[in-house]
């Protein structure tokens, strides 16, 4: 992977590295993720209000983000199979360290699968114990129209995220509102069956390190 080029989008703390993963790194990552989904298949969660997500999900790593009639939360097991999530691929731990510089490794990699009509409404990521730890997001496959705006609401900006792009919510942008308006079906042939994969890496628990 060549060193990522960082672009200033005007929202402090929102960091964007277009083309951070070259075609070979994307293919390797995709192969690893698809292999892990043999063990931890995609499933369609529902919101606490009972509405099914249009996105299908699974997780990698010691903890995974889940949503059901009870709550949004992190847990160690797949809600359908009851098995532990597959391990976090070392390539992702390395990318997290290189791009965020955060001292603790990621604990959760949420894998979002967007088929043709899937989307994700504007939201904040706030189910983590330490809301100062960054969120790192990797795009694979079809491009997506990503929307982002300040935590307090107001004007949002649209950004087209393509396969291999990486972005991060850090510092003052950690609680930025964001979502996916739509994907651009057929813009990439990377994902078998079509669509987009998003990998979102996070710390879930509070850091245990001493200061
Ligand atoms: O698919 C994306 O790029 C965003 C995913 C996201 O915001 C989330 O999983 O919290
Ligand atoms: Fe999010």
Automatic annotation (TrEMBL):
Binding site for Fe cation: 123, 125, 178
Lineage: superkingdom: Bacteria
One of the Pfam families matching this protein, by short name: 2OG-FeII_Oxy_2
UniProt keyword annotations, A-Z: Dioxygenase, Iron, Metal-binding, Oxidoreductase
Cofactor comment text: Binds 1 Fe(2+) ion per subunit.
InterPro entries (alphabetical): Alkb (IPR004574), AlkB-like (IPR027450), AlkB-like_sf (IPR037151), Oxoglu/Fe-dep_dioxygenase_dom (IPR005123)
Gene Ontology MF terms in the entry: broad specificity oxidative DNA demethylase activity; ferrous iron binding; oxidative RNA demethylase activity
Domain Fe2OG dioxygenase: residue ranges: 105-205
Keyword Metal-binding: yes
Cofactor names: Fe(2+)
PROSITE patterns cross-referenced by the UniProt entry: FE2OG_OXY (PS51471)
GO annotations of cellular component type: cytoplasm
Protein name per its UniProtKB record: DNA-N1-methyladenine dioxygenase
């Amino acid at each position: 992977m060549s060193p990522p080029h960082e672009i200033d989008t005007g929202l402090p703390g929102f960091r964007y590295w277009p083309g951070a993963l070259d075609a070979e790194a994307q293919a390797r990552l995709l192969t690893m993720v698809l292999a892990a989904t043999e063990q931890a298949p995609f499933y369609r969660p529902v919101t606490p209000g009972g509405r099914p997500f249009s996105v299908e999900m699974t997780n990698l790593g010691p903890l995974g983000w889940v949503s059901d009639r009870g709550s949004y939360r992190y847990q160690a097991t797949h809600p359908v199979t009851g098995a532990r999530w597959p391990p976090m691929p070392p390539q992702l731990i390395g990318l997290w360290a290189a791009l965020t510089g955060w001292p603790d490794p990621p604990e959760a990699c949420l894998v979002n699968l967007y088929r043709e009509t899937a989307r994700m409404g504007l939201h904040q990521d706030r189910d983590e114990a330490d809301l100062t730890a960054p969120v790192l997001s990797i795009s694979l496959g079809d491009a997506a129209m990503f929307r982002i705006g300040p935590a307090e609401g107001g004007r949002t900006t649209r950004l087209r995220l393509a396969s291999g792009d990486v972005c991060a919510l850090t510092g003052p942008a950690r609680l930025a509102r964001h979502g996916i308006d739509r994907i651009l079906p057929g813009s990439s042939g990377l994902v078998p069956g079509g669509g987009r994969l998003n990998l979102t890496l996070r710390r879930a628990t509070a850091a245990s390190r001493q200061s």
